[in-house]
Amino acid sequence: MGSQRRPIRDRTSAGSSHKGRSTSVAHWSSSARFFGSRLASARLKRAPAFWAGFNSSETQNQGLSSPTAPPGQVNTATSWPSSIDRAEDQSAYTYFRANHLEANNAKSSLDGKYHQVSWTREIVFLRPKLVIVHDRTTTLYPTDDRAMFWTFGRNVAQMNSGVPMGMTRYDASFKGIYRGAFWSVLPASAEVNVVDHDDLHFLYRAEVRPAASSHIADNWLAVFDAAASPEGVNTVSSVLATNVDAVQFNDKNSSIVAFANLDPHLTPNATLVWPLNGASVSYIVGLTPGATYGVSSAGGNLTITSSGVYQASAAGVIVYRPCWQPAVHSFIRSRMNCLPGFGQGCSVSQCMGSESGVKAKQFRAQRKTWIR
Predict the structure, then answer these.
(1) How far is CA 275 from CA 98, 296, 303, in A?
(2) N or C: which end of the chain has fewer CB within 10 A?
(3) Which of 168, 196, 230 marks a domain boundary?
(4) Burial (CB count within 10 angstroms: exposed 0-12, middle 13-18, buried 19+), residue 92
(5) What is the pLDDT of residues 204-263, one digit of tens each?
(6) 297 lies in the same domain as 319
(7) Could you tell me if 17 and 154 lie in one domain?
(8) Which strands form 191-196's sheet, in the order they lie side by side?
(9) Domain limits for position 362
C-alpha cells in the first residue's frame, strides 16, 4: 500500500458534491494496516494475520525458533489478487473492505496443500477511537487448525470485570503508559491465548481460535479501543441479530455497527434484523453499492429489506438515525419517522443520515403519499 496514495473523498464517491475532507490511504495507515500487506514471508509471523494449517504445530505459538516451519516460510507469490475494493471516509467513520486476502496463503510444510481458501476483511473506524475489524474466512478442511493473530507490545493483561460472557478483553500498556484495549467478540467463546514471541519479552501475540474446529467457515470480530485509560474504554456488547454480525458501544450515541452476512438484493426474501437497544446511530456495512433498501423500525427492532428509499453509498454503507416521537401513533410513526417536525426536531438529513446517500426525490415523493 505504501506506493499507492490515491485520495479517498468524503461522502459517497470521489468528486461528490457533498462537503467533506480529502485524505489519502497513507493518512489512515493506523486502520489500513489491519488488512495485512505484502509482507515478506519471514515477517508474516509479526503481522496481524489469519493463518490456517494442517495442524496446530504449523500455526500455534510460532516464532523464529519454531520446530515446524509455519505457512509462508517457503512460498513465492507470482500474482497478487487481493485488493481494497471498497473505501469510504466520512466525518464520523471510515470504512474499508479488502478481498482475497487468502493471497497471504502458503503451502503447508506438512502436507504440501494450501489451507486458506478465502479471507475477506472489513474495517470500520468509528471516530474518535474505535476500530472494528470483521473477517470472514474458510479453510480447506473442517479439521484444519485456524487462528487470527493480533500482535502487541509489552505488558498485555487480561481484564475480566465488565466483560460479557463469550468475549475476551486484553489491555495493553508500555512503560507505564496505557495504550488501549483489545476485545475478541467473534467467534463466541473463542480460545484466546497470548504468547511471548520467542520468549523475547517485548512482542506478544493474541492467538484467537474458534472453540471447535469442525467446520470450514468462520466469522471473526475484534474491537480495538485507543482509550487513554482503562476508565475510558467503551463497553462492548454483542447484538443478537439475524443475518448480521453486530456490536454496540456505550458511547454518546449507543452506536451499533452491523456487518451484513447476507444482502437482501442478492439473497431472495432475506432480511437483516436486530434490536436497536436505544441506539441513535446504526452503521450498516457490506451492502450493494448504490442499491436502495427498505429500513424500518418497529417493536424496537431495525429491519433491512430489498425494497425502499434508503440508498447505500458507493461503498455499500447505510447510516441510520431513528427519529421518533412516542406520542405519535405507531402506525403513523412508522411512516413519518423522518419527516421534519416529527421526533425531536430531526431533519431529513439527520434522520436518514447524510452518509446514506438517500435519494431526495424518491423520499419526497414517498413522503407525499404518507401525509395524504
Answers:
(1) 28, 12, 9
(2) C
(3) 230
(4) middle
(5) 889 999 998 899 999 999 999 999 999 999 999 999 999 999 999 999 999 999 999 999
(6) yes
(7) yes
(8) 49-53, 145-152, 204-209, 191-196
(9) 235-372
Task: Tell me the C-alpha distance between 320 and 371, whole Å.
Answer: 22
Q: What residues contact residue 268 under an 8 Å CB cut-off, 6+ apart? A: none
| pLDDT recorded at residue 195 | 85
The residue among 169, 196, 230 that closes a domain is 230
In a domain? residue 131: yes
β-strand partners of 122: 97, 134
Which residues 6+ apart lie within 8 Å of 252 measured at CB? none
SS3 assignment, position 7: strand
Residues 163, 77, single domain; the answer is yes
CA 319 to chain CA centroid, Å, is 14
Give the sheet arrangement for strand 292-298, strand by strand. 272-275, 301-311, 292-298
Inside any domain, residue 32? yes
* Rounded Cα–Cα distance for residues 69 and 58 (Å): 7
What is the β-pairing status of strands 256-260 and 282-285? parallel
Residues 128 and 172 in one domain: yes
Closest CA to 35 of 102, 106, 116, 107: 102
Nearest partner of 72 among 47, 100, 90, judged by Cα? 47
Confirm if 134 and 245 have CB atoms less than 8 A apart.
Answer: yes
68 and 102 belong to one structural domain: yes
Domain count of the fold of the chain: 2
Q: Which three cell numbers stand for residue 310?
A: 434508503
| Torsion angle in degrees (nearest 10) through CA of 131, 134, 135, 136 | -170
Q: How far is 315 from 287, CA to CA, in rounded Å?
A: 8
Q: What is the pLDDT of residues 39-53, one digit of tens each?
A: 222 233 344 588 787
- Asked if residue 37 is part of any domain, the answer here is yes
Domain check: are 311 and 257 in the same one?
yes
Question: Are residues 173 and 288 located together in one domain of the fold?
Answer: no
Regarding whether 249 and 208 lie in a shared domain, the answer is no
Helix/strand/coil (H/E/C) assignment for every residue in 305-347 = EEEEEEECCCCCCEEECCCCCCCCCHHHHHHHCCCCCCCCCCC
Q: Give domain status of residue 141, yes or no.
A: yes
